[in-house]
Design goal:
This protein is α+β, with helices and mostly antiparallel strands and about 100 residues long. The protein has a single domain, classed as Alpha-Beta Plaits, CATH 3.30.70. The chain has two helices and four strands, in the order βαββαβ. Strands 2-3-1-4 form a four-stranded antiparallel β-sheet, covered by helices on one side. A hairpin with a 6-residue loop joins strand 2 and strand 3. The relative contact order is 0.32.
């Protein structure tokens, strides 16, 4: 069994309130969950208007499949025009960990 995690550090565009922030972050979280069947949530910077941290986790029996899913999730977030992807932190955990 392999567990993969991603942490996205995002800079949001022209956002002036937490309500506007939610209108940008929620669709990203929903699309990742719907398209890739991963667990995903906003996990940091909840009190800042223009920053967001999104965490994602996936489990697979095959490390190649897990890496592919994580790569596709990263590309989806990086392609969103309303956010700037500042950094991505990736971790893979196996049975030996």
């Amino acid at each position: 069994m392999y567990v993969g995690t991603l942490s996205f550090d995002l800079l949001l565009g022209d956002v002036r309130s937490l309500k506007e922030k939610r209108s940008v972050v929620r669709p990203i979280v929903s699309e990742l969950h719907r398209k890739f069947a991963v667990s995903v949530a906003e996990v940091g910077d909840q009190d800042l208007y223009r920053r967001a941290t999104i965490g994602l986790a996936a489990v697979s029996g095959d490390v190649g499949h897990l890496t592919d899913v994580m790569d596709r999730c990263e590309r989806l977030v990086a392609a969103r025009p309303e956010v700037e992807l500042l950094s991505v932190r990736r971790r893979l955990h196996g049975d030996d960990d």
